[in-house]
Design goal:
heterodimer; A: alpha+beta; Glutaredoxin; 2 domains; two-stranded antiparallel ribbon; elongated; B: 4-stranded mixed β-sheet; 37% helix; globular
Chain lengths: 380, 89
């Protein structure tokens, strides 16, 4: 083979090997981004995609499709769903090559996955992303500031909700009856059963809220509605704070209170322990279901906050459990102190008054953010 | 003088006030007080127009006429001041 033939063969071989790279430079790969106006997760992903565009703009084209104003884009989204074999329930929905991403949690999670898929279709390796949200603190070690905000707000709202007097009066009724008993073991078991059953009702109530919001969560009106509920609830709490300067207990529902008290008396005095045990669970369910309406505001707002943060299913329930633990902590303390000292103890109504003030202000802030800046409520 | 105390077992603020009053009564043996459980004494609740915020403490003179009343959680100091003021009524 002459030197010229060898040269032509080498060029031909290299052209075949390098063809994809040349092709990449000429024909850009595509990323399809389906989004909707007013969708906070879409807004978050849009900021991420702008960074991606700067980084890979020479090789990648980002195609954006807004679905609330352009019916054709919905058709296209459905077509993508059909082609990819996925039942698309909402946006943001992102397609990179043959990979797709439903929702958008954070730059470190969904964003990182999207970037990996981009690098995959471009056939290059990228530098590892630097995470600026992690800080080193003495004693605590490395803390991720982004993931810390949600647990903190969970604890704050849980405690504020716990001071709600709606849920406490039945427990105090029960303690007053239990203190008259001689059997201390029975006192502890019935009291703890009542508190655990109350927590279970609250858990079911919040889980129901969560699933309802998850089901309807992609509809912008639900977020707006809950934002308005938060504003209304906040105003109501503030009104209660200013209307009750004496820090007293408000007397409401005389008949209901009488009925519950008689029923509790009947149950705790049952000779058969198991009848009393089952009776106390049933009563805890009945009373707390009714009282749940009284404190519907904070749990509804909180579950919307959870949905905004687009967590894994187990995380939603773990956060609800954390919320309920702090919600019940004041009840638990009152019960334990009463059982140990054998005296009735209350929590100063001054605290519940301040919980009205702080809770009211917090609900108004969250309400305004839900309406106008929902992306600020995404901590993950 | 006499003090009528209205409270309820389900009212946290009333429970807070109980030991406070116990101390006051111990330190002022001349003082006559009477406690009414809200749910068990509706006739007295109506008679003295207790209202819908508990606890309520009604200070009466020796003829049973109302001198003043306190509502909600109050500091021991505030109660002692009132007692001093109305002691001879």
């Amino acid at each position: 083979m002459s030197i010229y033939k060898k040269l032509i063969a080498a060029i031909f071989f290299m052209a075949i090997v390098l063809w994809p790279s040349f092709a990449m430079a000429e024909e850009k790969e595509e990323l399809h981004f389906f989004w909707q106006i007013g969708c906070p997760h879409c807004a978050k992903e849009e900021i991420f995609l702008e960074g991606i565009e700067e980084k890979y703009g020479d090789y990648l084209e980002i195609k954006r499709y807004e679905i609330s104003r352009e019916p054709e884009n919905i058709k296209l989204l459905q077509q993508f769903g059909k082609d990819l074999g996925v039942d698309i329930k909402g946006v943001p929905f992102t397609v990179v090559g043959e990979e797709y991403f439903v929702g958008y949690l954070s730059d470190e999670t969904t964003g990182s996955d999207i970037e990996a898929a981009i690098l995959d279709i471009l056939g290059v390796d990228g530098p590892p992303a630097k995470d600026k949200s992690k800080i080193d603190l003495p004693l605590f070690g490395q803390i991720d500031t982004k993931t810390m905000s949600l647990p903190i707000i969970t604890i704050i709202i849980g405690i504020l909700d716990g001071f709600n007097p709606c849920a406490m009066w039945t427990l105090l009724f029960l303690i007053s009856l239990l203190l008259g008993m001689k059997d201390r073991r029975r006192m502890w078991v019935l009291g703890v059963t009542f508190i655990v059953a109350s927590a279970a009702v609250y858990f079911l109530f919040m889980a129901a809220w969560l699933n309802l919001i998850l089901l309807l969560g992609f509809i912008i009106w639900i977020r707006i509605l809950i934002g308005l509920v938060a504003l209304g609830g906040g105003a109501w709490n503030l009104k209660k704070y200013f209307k009750n300067p004496d820090a007293g207990c408000e007397v409401t529902g005389d008949e209901k209170r009488r009925r519950v008290f008689d029923r509790l008396k009947e149950i705790t005095q049952k000779k058969n322990f198991w009848l009393a045990f089952v009776g106390i669970i049933a009563l805890a369910f009945a009373v707390n279901l009714v009282e749940a309406i009284c404190s519907a505001g904070l749990p509804a707002v909180y579950t919307q906050l959870l949905v905004l943060n687009d967590l894994a299913t187990w995380q939603y329930y773990a956060y609800i459990l954390l919320y309920i633990f702090f919600f019940m902590i004041d009840d638990l303390l009152i019960f334990i102190i009463a059982m140990v000292t054998l005296k009735m103890t209350g929590v100063s109504t001054k605290y519940s008054r301040f919980s009205n003030l702080i809770g009211g202000a917090l609900m108004i802030i969250i309400g305004l953010l839900l309406l106008f800046k929902p992306e600020w409520l995404m901590f993950g | 003088m006499k003090v009528l105390k209205f409270g309820a077992v389900w009212c946290p603020g009333c429970l807070i006030m109980k030991p406070r009053w116990a101390e006051i009564e111990k330190e002022n043996s001349w003082l006559e007080t009477e406690y009414f459980e809200y749910d068990d004494n509706m006739d007295k609740v109506k008679e003295y127009e207790v209202g819908n915020v508990l606890p309520v403490f009604i200070f009466l003179d020796k003829d049973g006429k109302e001198l003043t009343r306190l509502k909600g959680e109050k500091d021991k100091k505030d109660i002692l001041e009132l007692l001093k003021k109305y002691k001879d009524n």
